[in-house]
Structures are given as structure tokens and as C-alpha cells.
Specification:
Strand content: 15-25%
Helix content: 40-55%
Order of helices and strands: EEHHH
Shape: elongated
Number of strands: 2
């Protein structure tokens, strides 16, 4: 289950010190990991993804995609190989596997 999306981490800037714990004379600092993450909760993402405008856009895009796919399918009908019609047997499967796995020679060979 999605709990949320990590979008960042809380930084911590620590002083650069020497072995005696004396700060660098120029006040240098180094970025450190706090182990705390900033997360957008899943329920908030769900609310965002289901606003009316986005739902309508997805429905429109899905409809266009379906229409385009149906048009492409109508233009190029599927032709079934008569050897593949009916029930596939173990022997037929192994034969097809051998054919698919054979080396195809190039025109130069």
C-alpha cells in the first residue's frame, strides 16, 4: 500500500571542527543527514489526482486512445496462421519453440 511520496529531506548544517572540537576560523559548515524526510501523504495525492478536471481529462484521453486503437485494428485485420488454430499440444509447443529459437542467417552468409 502506498503511504506517500518522499519529496525531500530535512538538512542539518553542522560546524566544521578540528580534533579539539574548535570551529573552523572561517565558520565553515557541512550539510549532514538528519534522517527526516518530507513526504506527501497518499490521501493528499489521491485528492489531487481525483479533482474534476483531471478525471475529465483522463476519461477524454482514454476515449481517444480506444478510438485510435479500434481504427488501427480495423485497418490491419489479424490473419491467423492455420497451423496455430485449435488446441496447442506439447509437441506443437516444442516445435514452435525450436523455430523461434533458431539462428537466422544474414544475407551476407
Amino acid at each position: 500500500m502506498l503511504l506517500g511520496v518522499d519529496w525531500g529531506h530535512v538538512p542539518l548544517y553542522e560546524k566544521v571542527v578540528d580534533g579539539r572540537n574548535i570551529s573552523h576560523p572561517h565558520g565553515w559548515r557541512v550539510k549532514s543527514n538528519t534522517g527526516m524526510a518530507a513526504v506527501v501523504p497518499a490521501w493528499r495525492l489521491n485528492d489531487l489526482l481525483n479533482i474534476k478536471e483531471l478525471v475529465m481529462q483522463r476519461e477524454k484521453d482514454d476515449k481517444e486512445l480506444l478510438e485510435r486503437k479500434q481504427a488501427e485494428d480495423a485497418e490491419s485485420p489479424v490473419v491467423l496462421d492455420t497451423a496455430m488454430e485449435g488446441e496447442i499440444t506439447t509437441e506443437g509447443f516444442h516445435d514452435a519453440l525450436k523455430k523461434a529459437g533458431r539462428k537466422i542467417s544474414s544475407p551476407d552468409e
